[in-house]
Amino acid sequence: ILFHCWVCWLHLCQVLRGLQAKYGDLYRQDNVVLSGTHTHSGLGGYFQYTLFMITSKGYIKSSIQIIVQGIVKSIERAHENLRPGRIFINKGELEESNLNRSPHSYMNNPEEERKRYNGNTDKQVVVLKFTDMDGDGIGMISWFAVHPVSMNSSNHMVSGDNLGYASYLFEQDKNIGSLPGRGPFVATFASSNLGDVSPNTRGPHCLNTGESCDYLNSSCPIGGTKMCVAFGPGNNMFESTRIIGENIFKKSKELYSSTKQEVRGPIHFAHQWLNMSDITIQINSTHTAKTCKPALGHSFAGGTIDGGGALNFTQGAVEGDPFWDGIRDAILGPPSNETQDCHRPKPILFSTGEMNWPLPWHPVIVDVQLITIGSVAIVAIPGEVTTMSGRRIREASSHAFANTEVVIAGLCNIYTHYITTYEEYQIQRYEAASTIYGPHTLSAYIQSYRGLARAIAEGTEAELPKGPEPPFFTDSQLFSLLPLNPVDKTPDNSSFGEVLEQVDPVYTVGQVASVTFVAGNPRNSGDMTDKTFVTVEKLHNSTQTWSVVHTDASWETRFHWIKGTSGLSNATVEWHIPQSAQSGFYRIRHFGHYKEFRNLKPVFTAYEGVSDVFKVNKRIYY
Ligand SMILES: *[C@@H]1O[C@H](CO)[C@@H](O)[C@H](O)[C@H]1NC(C)=O
Ligand SMILES: *[C@@H]1O[C@H](CO)[C@@H](O)[C@H](O)[C@H]1NC(C)=O
Ligand SMILES: *[C@@H]1O[C@H](CO)[C@@H](O)[C@H](O)[C@H]1NC(C)=O
Ligand SMILES: *[C@@H]1O[C@H](CO)[C@@H](O)[C@H](O)[C@H]1NC(C)=O
Ligand SMILES: *[C@@H]1O[C@H](CO)[C@@H](O)[C@H](O)[C@H]1NC(C)=O
Ligand SMILES: *[C@@H]1O[C@H](CO)[C@@H](O)[C@H](O)[C@H]1NC(C)=O
Ligand SMILES: *[C@@H]1O[C@H](CO)[C@@H](O)[C@H](O)[C@H]1NC(C)=O
Ligand SMILES: *[C@@H]1O[C@H](CO)[C@@H](O)[C@H](O)[C@H]1NC(C)=O
Ligand SMILES: *[C@@H]1O[C@H](CO)[C@@H](O)[C@H](O)[C@H]1NC(C)=O
């Protein structure tokens, strides 16, 4: 079973614990894969290794618990709806929807290898279609290699980005008339070998001057790295998200609709834990190589054209910067000579494998996992593999299986940053600086997946050694520096949910209806599973009743929470009225909770607000 979500190992473990109570050992480490997505628009604070807790102000239990409960619930629902069915596969190519963001690294791969492929990104879309025994569709999974980062860092709304939008479109198409997430059909758009692949297809340009960025280090003559940003294909991030999402949706739907090839045969799965700082690889008949303790290079802090670093780091650094190394040494201590040698030519910025306070900074025990369903093999990789790395893993795995479609499922079970080829590693752009177990990381994985593939092919997967179990950090070991949110306040003589800025009386499709409410902090609403902060409601004239046409999960709505001072805040709700909207009367509602203290105890009270009724007209053509 492959579940697509935003989580890492702790959750898999927590999810499994949640399931164990109900289903015994039916769902286990070896037969469940959690494949995450790379969004810049999600919640933070749910990965327990120290590096990831720095930017999220620690481990945020209120985010994690709800995500875990939601995943457990979705698996329970899937389990309860289990019935016999059939699986079909199809694949095709999608153009103009991805771009290699480190072409200079890619070009360092051997020419004869590059010649065997068409271009420096994978264009293929692989779709699995699930039907019941009557042939009615019940779900699908689509893999296409692209970073879901069309939305940039200026966006503060929770968003599934381009792949999330593709999923939304597919489900709306199948679950006609249902609100998002409510219908029976499930459409999943999952991660593949997207490591060096950007969705921003117009490529990088200097924000200030409009010039091209430097090819080798992606920096601008004035302003450096942070001025070099990739855009497109739309004129803003919303348009870009929509276009890329639509492209992936359309191609996937075409493949879904036209597939005739049924997937038949048994299901196998193999799983192991590896100590990634301690793998010996047989390179050729005479030489071996080793992986390293985790470390990040200088170019990690350079960021990418999909989101630059804040300081003066650049990509492609093969020498350290004495200024930053000095600061690092003073605060964290210098990396050991052993680690420095092991990672060469990477200049080490953070020797995370040697940093264990208050908890390890990076994982060293990682999951490798392989699932085969008939003639489809899903390689579950614990990181973001580059285009060529993915191709090499695919090729190596397919040697074990004849006539098998090998799918790269990225960001599975635990997160270990990027995985480049040995040749790409030499260039030390962002992806290479973030290949944390050193230059032979990919070779170590290929060796391991080959072992899993061989075991499945020979039917010996049950005999595979389990490997060292990863640590499990308990709540008392994890820290949170996120302050409790203060009590919510309203402006004088107003109440929560009161309208501060009213909608217009009349709109035409294509316009944006907007209303601002006196609000409480959304964190005070707690678990929002199956709930919404926002509804757009339509009046049924004949019965004088309202029905919900959109929620906060709809592409058409935007819910902005604007934090003021002294506990004051506003919620602005926008409805981007689609061309397909029916003319008639509408209203917008907002639901929230405010926090106050009563008898020294925090109390959370629900409130709601409603806009005036407004009219929507179809466009008038002259
Ligand atoms: C980037 O590389 C160019 C040469 O290709 C060089 O002139 C420039 O100084 C480099 N920028 C930084 C910030 O290192
Ligand atoms: C994000 O995209 C918007 C356009 O939607 C653009 O105005 C802004 O400069 C971008 N910001 C960053 C940090 O790239
Ligand atoms: C992983 O390997 C390293 C290097 O050999 C070793 O120091 C470490 O103890 C190992 N970790 C575990 C959990 O086995
Ligand atoms: C094996 O690999 C090493 C290191 O890359 C190289 O120096 C050596 O020539 C190779 N030997 C053979 C037999 O290919
Ligand atoms: C980065 O900034 C520091 C401090 O301003 C400076 O000393 C250093 O030389 C800069 N490094 C680069 C590569 O520009
Ligand atoms: C690390 O290498 C440097 C330079 O080669 C050397 O001066 C130093 O003594 C080494 N440190 C250790 C602990 O071996
Ligand atoms: C709030 O209402 C009271 C009573 O109606 C009035 O005296 C006061 O001026 C109002 N304050 C503001 C800021 O409007
Ligand atoms: C709604 O119904 C009322 C009477 O119940 C009628 O006067 C009005 O024209 C109707 N409006 C629309 C938009 O159909
Ligand atoms: C909330 O909206 C009102 C009315 O537009 C505005 O005066 C006030 O500054 C806003 N408060 C915040 C926190 O944005």
Automatic annotation (TrEMBL):
UniProt signal peptide: 1-21
UniProt keyword terms in alphabetical order: Hydrolase, Lipid metabolism, Metal-binding, Signal, Sphingolipid metabolism, Zinc
GO cellular component, one term: cytoplasm
InterPro entries to which the protein is assigned, alphabetical: Ceramidase_alk (IPR006823), NCDase_C_sf (IPR038445), NEUT/ALK_ceramidase_C (IPR031331), NEUT/ALK_ceramidase_N (IPR031329)
Superkingdom, natural source: Eukaryota
BP-aspect Gene Ontology terms: ceramide catabolic process; long-chain fatty acid biosynthetic process; sphingosine biosynthetic process
Cofactor binding, per record: Binds 1 zinc ion per subunit.
Active site: residue positions: 198 (nucleophile)
Record's catalysed reaction(s): an N-acylsphing-4-enine + H2O = sphing-4-enine + a fatty acid
A Pfam family per the record: Ceramidase_alk
MF (Gene Ontology): metal ion binding; N-acylsphingosine amidohydrolase activity
Residues binding Zn(2+), per UniProt: 38, 147, 384, 418
The UniProt record lists the keyword Lipid metabolism: yes
Gene3D superfamilies in alphabetical order: Neutral/alkaline non-lysosomal ceramidase, C-terminal domain
Domain (Neutral/alkaline non-lysosomal ceramidase N-terminal): residue spans on this chain: 14-447
Cofactor: Zn(2+)
Domain Neutral/alkaline non-lysosomal ceramidase C-terminal: from-to ranges: 450-616
Family: Belongs to the neutral ceramidase family.
PANTHER family per the UniProt record, alphabetical: CERAMIDASE, NEUTRAL CERAMIDASE
Protein name in the entry: Neutral ceramidase
Source organism: Denticeps clupeoides (denticle herring)
Phylogenetic placement of the source organism: Eukaryota, Metazoa, Chordata, Craniata, Vertebrata
